[in-house]
Amino acid sequence: DVKVTQSSRYLVKRTGEKVFLECVQDMDHENMFWYRQDPGLGLRLIYFSYDVKMKEKGDIPEGYSVSREKKERFSLILESASTNQTSMYLCASKFPDSETGELFFGEGSRLTVL
Amino acid sequence: GQNIDQPTEMTATEGAIVQINCTYQTSGFNGLFWYQQHAGEAPTFLSYNVLDGLEEKGRFSSFLSRSKGYSYLLLKELQMKDSASYLCAVMDSNYQLIWGAGTKLIIKP
Fold first, then answer.
1. A108: alpha, beta or left, given left = phi > 0 and alpha = psi -120 to 50?
2. Which of B79, B76, B96, B104 is nearest to B19 (CA)?
3. Is A52 within 8 Å of A68 (Cβ atoms)?
4. Other C-beta atoms lying within 10 Å of the C-beta of residue A33
5. Is A103 touching B (CB cutoff 8 A)?
6. From CA B101, how far away is CA B2, in angstroms rounded?
7. Is A40 in Cβ contact with B101 (below 8 Å)?
8. A90 contacts B42? CB cut-off 8 A
9. Which residue in A32, B55, B72, B92 has the most C-beta neighbors within 10 A?
């Protein structure tokens, strides 16, 4: 069974703290993505990666960075958390040549910044 | 700008049929997706349409009209477990996904 695992389901951090969100997939997918999901808005792409060591900015990269040192792991970093980064963060992965382009999602990391 | 519109919330009765609409305006089109997301869980893939017409998969069907920028997801024989949010997404000319805000479907007994 395919699996995308996000390290923390719930986190509470203080303004200014550094936050790491980890995502691991066991499907040997090249492509990995970080989204945030907020009420009333569609999923918004923060960063994505097409291969190890590669990263591309999505629609809302400000305040975030990523790391892809290994194919199976894609980390999202908030260098200095702010209250407007309180959100649900979803990691996803897929094969680049997938016929349907199906994304496989993790269960999400709900971050609260106080 | 790019835009995906779908109703915020819908209510339907167990055993009935419901149609969730999605209209889109995007720069280019490379396919439309429907995902299901139960509260507190990961979105899961339901369907992919790239050509006009109806794709049927069990109790769920998805329809696409590219000329009208329109899709719908049809759920038949509704079950309580179908209570979830349904997300519509379009892949644009750059192969990036544009997401709608989702439709929360409430099933009543």
1. left
2. B76
3. yes
4. 24
5. yes
6. 13
7. yes
8. yes
9. A32
Helix, coil or strand: residue A85: helix
The DSSP bridge partners found for residue B88 are B34
Asked if the Cβ–Cβ distance from A90 to B43 is below 8 Å, we say yes
pLDDT in tens, B8-60: 999 999 999 999 999 999 999 999 999 999 998 999 999 999 999 999 999 99
DSSP conformation letters of B25-93: E-SS-S-EEEEEE-TTS--EEEEEE-SSEEEEETTEEEEEETTTTEEEEEE-S--GGG-EEEEEEEE-T
Interface of A with B in 48-67 (CB under 8 A): none
How far apart are alpha carbons A36 and A13 in whole angstroms? 17
Give, as one character, the DSSP assignment of residue A1: -
| Confidence check: pLDDT of A24 > 90 | yes
Mean residue pLDDT of chain B comes to 95
Residue A4 contacts B where some CB pair is shorter than 8 Å? yes
Six-digit token string for B45? 């893939």
Q: Is B13 left (phi over 0), alpha (psi -120 to 50) or beta?
A: beta
Place of tokens 């167990």: B14
> Inter-chain contact B42–A105, Cβ cutoff 8 Å?
yes
- Mean pLDDT value across chain A: 93
The token duo for B26 is: 């995007």
